[in-house]
Automatic annotation (TrEMBL):
The organism of origin for this protein: Amycolatopsis viridis
Protein known as: Uncharacterized protein
Highest rank taxon of the organism: Bacteria
């Protein structure tokens, strides 16, 4: 490996490490407490209802309807 290539890789590693540390420095709060989520899901499961996650807005249906180029 050439010296310039090694320097570029080291700088990239430093940049990515700094970026990771920056992202990890801010805690992400829970949107819904675990107890609340469980209390909402249990009755639905007891009814035997099968749920599917909503399709993202840029999914195949949106492209088919020409909402997304």
């Amino acid at each position: 490996m050439s010296a310039p290539q090694r320097i570029r890789e080291e700088r990239l590693s430093e940049l990515l490490a700094a970026w990771r540390d920056d992202v990890n420095s801010v805690p992400i709060p829970r949107l819904v407490p675990t107890e609340t989520a469980v209390a909402l899901i249990r009755p639905v499961r007891a009814l035997g209802v099968r749920c599917r996650a909503a399709e993202p807005p840029d999914g195949p249906a949106a492209r088919h309807g020409r909402l997304v180029p």
